[in-house]
Amino acid sequence: MQVLIAGAAGFLGSHLTDAILAEGHDVLGVDNLCTGSVENLKHLKAEPKFRFLEQDICVPFDPKRVDYVFSFASPASPADYMRLGIETLMVGSAGTKNLLDIAKKYGAKFLHASTSECYGDPEQHPQTEEYWGHVNPIGPRSVYDESKRFSEALVTAYHRYEKVDTRLVRIFNTYGPRLQMSDGRVISNFLAQALKGDDITIYGDGSQTRSFCYVSDEIDGIVRLSKSDEHSPVNIGNPTEWTILECAKAVLKVTGSKSKIIHQPLPQDDPTQRKPDISKAKRLLQWDPKIDLQTGLKLSLEYFKACVAATV
Ligand code: NAD
Ligand code: UDP
User: Fold this and answer.
1) How much is the average pLDDT of 30-46?
2) 189 and 136, same structural domain?
3) Are 76 and 193 within one domain?
4) How far is the CA of 239 from the centre of ligand 2 (A)?
5) Residue of 16, 35, 57, 180 with the most ligand 1 atoms within 8 Å of its CB, for mutation
6) Membrane spanning segments where (predicted)?
7) Are residues 139 and 229 in the same domain?
8) Residue range 93-116: mean pLDDT, rounded
9) Closest ligand relative to 169 C-alpha
10) Residue 279 lies in a domain
11) What average pLDDT does range 67-75 have in this prediction?
C-alpha cells in the first residue's frame, strides 16, 4: 500500500511510520514541523520506502495515489496547543478536511487520531466510548478539545455522507522515546527534571489521575484498529490509573534521582481523573496493553538521558 501519515515527524507519527514500514508498505510522511522534529525520522534517511514532505495540512495538497491516510498531525501537549491555539483549531478542522478529501479522491481508508480529551473533565469513570464528555467549550483547553471533537464529527460525516472508510482512535496519555523533552507533558517533564536533578513540579496536590500507555502498546492497538472495519471511536490506552504524585514517585525510583517534589498551581480545567474502559478494544481487536509504567519508564530512560546530555 501507499500510506500517507500526517504528523509523521511527531512522537506517535514517527513510531507509526516505523510500524507501517515494517509491514512492507510505502510511507509518505507529511509534517510542518511545528511541534515535531526530523530527528524522529533520521533513522529512515536511507529507507527507499519512505519519503518526507514538509507541508502544512491546512493548505490543500495532492499526494497522488494513496491507499491509506493516517491523520496524526496536531499539537498534542497542553503547553504546545495553548501556545498554538488557532493553529490547533485549524488543523483539527481545515487540516482534517483536507486529509478526508484526499481519502475520498483516491478511495483510501482513513484513520484519525482522536483523544481522551473528547471526554473533557469526565464525570463518568472509567470512560467508555458511549460517554459524551464534559468539556468547557471556551476554557484554555478548548482549542484542543473542540478541535478534536469537531474532527470526530467531520470524520463521521465523511463516513456517513461520502462513504469514506473511516476509523477513530481515542488515544489516552501515551509516552516513550521521541517525546519532545521540553514539550511540557508530565512524563517528559518528570524524567527530564529527575535526570537533571531539578525539582519535580507537581501541579496541584498531585491527586489528579492519568492512565499511561507505553508507545509500543499504543501503536499495536492503532495498527490493529487500522485493519478492522469499526467506524465508531475505540479507546486505546492502558487502564492502570495513577495519581500524578504516584507517577512522580515512580519516576524518582526508576531514575534513582534525589530530586525534590515541589507543588505548583493546578492549571484551569485540568481533568481530575482519566481512565479508559478498553473492553471494546479487547473484544474487537484482541488488544491488551503489556507494558506497565515502571517498565515503560525504564525503556524510556536511555532516550531521555541522551536528550538531557545534549542540552548540557
Ligand atoms: P506531536 O506533537 O509529537 O506530533 C504531532 C505532529 O503533527 C508534529 O510532528 C507536528 O509538527 C505535526 N503537525 C501539527 N500541525 C500540523 C499541520 N498543520 N500540518 C502538518 N503537520 C502538523 O504529538 P503526538 O503525541 O505524537 O500526537 C500525535 C497525534 O495523536 C495528535 O493528533 C494528538 O492529538 C494525538 N494524541 C496523542 C496523545 C499522546 O498521549 N501522545 C494522546 C491523545 C491524542
Ligand atoms: N503535570 C504536572 N507536572 C508537570 C506536567 C504535568 O503535575 O510538570 C500534570 C498536569 O497538571 C496533569 C497531568 O500531569 O494533571 C498530565 O499532564 P499532561 O500535560 O501530560 O497531559 P494531560 O493529560 O493533562 O493532557
Assistant:
1) 97
2) no
3) no
4) 17
5) 35
6) none
7) yes
8) 98
9) 1
10) no
11) 98
180 and 117 fall within a common domain: no
Tell the residue nearest (CA) to atom 18 of ligand 2: 185
Tell me, what's the pLDDT at 312? Answer: 75
Indicate whether residue 148 lines ligand 2 (CB < 6 A).
Answer: no
Same domain, 170 and 180: no
Share of the chain above pLDDT 70, in %: 100
Examine residue 69 and state whether it is found in any structural domain, yes or no: yes
> How would residue 12 be classed by pLDDT, with cut points 50, 70 and 90?
very high
**Residue 148: inside a domain, yes or no?**
yes
Q: Which three cell numbers stand for residue 244?
A: 500524578
Name the closest-CA residue to atom 18, ligand 1.
56
* Chain position carrying cell 538521558: 305
Distance 220 CA to ligand 1 centre (A): 18
Query: 137 is in which domain, residue-wise?
Result: 2-174+214-236
- Residues 220, 119 share a domain: yes
> Does 286 fall in a domain?
no
Mutate to test the pocket of ligand 2, among 244, 249, 264, 273 (most ligand atoms within 8 A of CB): 244
Same domain, 73 and 156: yes
Residue 144 designated active-site: yes
CATH of the domain at 258: 3.90.25.10
Is there a single domain that holds both residue 183 and residue 227? no
Using one digit for the tens of pLDDT, what is the confidence trace for 128-179?
Answer: 999 999 999 999 999 999 999 999 999 999 999 999 999 999 999 999 999 9
